[in-house]
Amino acid sequence: MEMDSVRGTLRLARSAYRTGGTAGLLAATVERGLSRPRVHPKLHWRLARAYYRRRCANDVAAYDAAPDPFKLERVSPDRIRRHTRREYPPYRDRLALFGAVRGGDWDRRDGPPVDSGYRGPPAELFLADRFEGSVLYRSLEGRFERGVPWEETPLVREVLDLVEESGPDRVWHECETAADVRRRCERLDALYASIRDDGYRSQRARFGTDPSVGFRHCLRHEIAVDVGRDGELLLVCGKHRLAIAKLLGLDAVPVVFLVRHPEWMRRRGDAIGGGVAEPHPDLRDIGP
Length: 288
Known about the structure:
Number of helices: 8
Strand content: 5-15%
């Protein structure tokens, strides 16, 4: 193991111990061991699935017609029109939110409240009343439909300004410097070309062929949505991939589910007897 890797592992171990004590260190050790298929892929999948099923909320298990908390469904990008209204950033600690059920008005708010301790890039770069109205979406639209240079898109102009200021440590994903921003843009160009030319592949389709892709990776790197009381699909993460899918006019993309409203869970129960006629991606596992 290279020295930088050893140092990184020790830093993670110290952080896990400070945060959660011995239990936190043990959990971090197990999760690191499950991060990649270090045994036969099928055995890895079974072990990791059993582990994360215990670690995630899985509140859905208490309801009739309980869905698999890790299920993957194909969804039309056009069905995802808004971001979730849970506290921003909603993707934080998302592995613990698979199968969660949360009541309240979070699905009906005009916009999500921003965590007072949030220190990442400005939320207004990514949020808007409608997904297509966001700075992010309009910037990708300009780049991929009109050939606007990245440096002239509103998103990249803003993040490059942030790099020069004493703003957040990360201005866009893990970008900390102008060079990081340029590399991020290059990766998005490559992602767009790959999806356009080869189609949209789920992360699970890579499992078993790419040794870097394990169960945890598959959960973390798909488009994820919450489900409001009326069945509205609300985006949690995967905004770049969703934007590209919309711009390319794709029929469907793979999606995983995090938080559901209890009213929606009751509608799922009604669907057992055919009480819900509307076709919905979160009802396919129990029929119409």
